[in-house]
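Subject: Protein record for review, amino acid sequence with backbone structure tokens
Concerning: The relation between a protein's sequence and the shape of its backbone.
How to read it: Take the token row as a discrete description of the fold.
Enclosed: The protein record, placed directly beneath this head.
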Amino acid sequence: MRITKPRTNSLILCTARDHRTSPHKPAQFFKLIPYELQCLLVLLLCLSATVGYTQSSTDVLNLPRCIELARNAPSSVKRAREQLDAAKFGEQAARANFLPQVSIVNGFTYNSPLLYDHNSFSFIALNGIREYSSAATTTLELDSSGRLRALYDRARANRTIAETGLAMSERDLDHAVSVAYYRVLLTQKLVASANENLQAARDFETKVRQLVDGGEASQADLTKASLETSVLERTADSMKVEAEMAEHDLVSYWTTGASTRLSLADDLDQQPPEPGTSSESAPYLKRPEFRMLAAQIAGFKADARQARAGMLPQLNLSFQYGIDANRVTSRDRGYAGFVHLDIPIFDFLRARSEQRQFQSEARAAQTDLSIGARMFSKEYQDALSQVNGIYAQIAITQRQVDLAKENLRLSRLRFESGEGTALEVVTAQSALAQADIDFYTTRADYLNALTALKVASGQ
């Protein structure tokens, strides 16, 4: 996490640099302040800058803050927002098709005269040798075939798809950041637990070594204690590497790297919330995937209507006002109206085939909707069972840790009194290390399961 010093410190450095470069010409501001007050002011500013830097370097990140950083960074969420903006513009363009289109058309046509009569023009379809035209044209397409309405419905479906895609991108990003966040918490706790167990094993090895030097313990006991220390050293080192990799994974969602260890809110030591109960019979139906499939079905139906419009008559109205004459003069101005009716006859079944194509795609999307209902129902039931099952294990792991600590304490007392063996102590140390791993792993798995249940519930 990159640390930026406060702006106040930069002002102090700039002032000091200017004073060094011009020792005989201090700033006009300092001329009005006594020397003692100048020193006090600089000291206070330095202290405030130091305090500000210390606070910024010890910021504690919680899960909402990590999600906020990930959302603000370039990601799939930002790309989904851009796609939504594009879909909104597409909807506006489709709506504009219902409005009159106004333009100014200018043209000049030269028609060569006849070879035997230079006063007559050769192309009889034209109006003269020279023709000048400049007219304001208004065109309105009366949607008699339903093509414009189909285009607008497709644009609305595209916008709904883009909005749903944004919601799904935000949900997936939040879930991924949550998993990475709890992974960092878990690895940090496992590192702390491994170091604590390693220190306890080293203390026990030192005590056994002293007993061996005094003739009160055997070399085999020292070997067992040293072996346990080596195993815990390897475990601590591997946990440290895993913690660093977990931090790299988390910060990769908003930056290119972190120069210092992350300081996260201690969520694993707090009592996790109990599983909630939903009053709805099928909460998974609120998942955005259903809105996505419904929008796709609506879009395919709109495409089918657009293809069908190719087989229906289409009416266009046009009005012109301006000049269309053999000379440029305002006295020749006028206006004209045009009505254009396009009646399709036969297109070798092209429009009909396109219509059936989009209808088939709409039915395929409807099938996907039915399949998704079964699949998402299974995911919700699995997530609910996982949450309830892991929550029941939390109390068990807490009792496991307490029993492992008590077992280690009694094993050491028995060994120190000569009633137990070093193997019992080593076994108790391994059991405590495994109990700590199970304790924090279960809590992290439960928090991840809660996040997965929210996804499965459409939250």
Observations:
- The mean pLDDT is 84.
- The first helix runs from residue 7 to 21.
